[in-house]
Amino acid sequence: MTSSSLTGEVITWTTDPEEAIAQICGALKRNLTTEELAQFFTRAPDHETCG
Q1: How many domains does the chain have?
Q2: Backbone phi, then psi, for 15, in 5-degree steps?
Q3: Residue 11: which residues within 8 A CB-CB, separation 6 or more?
Q4: Mind listing the pLDDT tens digit of every residue in the chain (51 residues)?
Q5: What is the residue range of 15's domain?
Q6: What's the sign of the alpha-carbon dihedral 27, 17, 13, 43?
Q7: How far apart are CA 32 and CA 35, in angstroms?
């Protein structure tokens, strides 16, 4: 998927969940906090998010 920012920059987003997880965890370098889990998940995963 492709979008543009307010400055006109073109951004390409992956639609592959496994690739998205790898990119997010690669940038985050930690597990999600309890607050982040509550914000983004209706049911918290039963495993480490970026272990």
Answers
A1: 1
A2: -110, 5
A3: 2, 3, 4, 5
A4: 999 999 999 999 999 988 988 998 899 888 888 888 889 888 877 778 786
A5: 2-40
A6: negative
A7: 8
Alpha helices in the chain (DSSP H): 17-28, 34-40
Question: Which own/partner pairs from 47-51 qualify as long-range (CB within 8 Å, at least 24 positions apart)?
Answer: 49/25, 50/24, 50/25
Distance CA 10, CA 28 (A): 23
6 found inside a domain: yes
**8 domain-assigned:** yes
Which pTM value belongs to this model?
Answer: 0.55
Which amino acid makes up residue 44?
A
10, β-bridge pairs: 4
* Residue in this structure with the two tokens 């997010």, named with its chain if needed: 24
Query: Quick one: which H or E segment has residue 12?
Result: strand 10-12
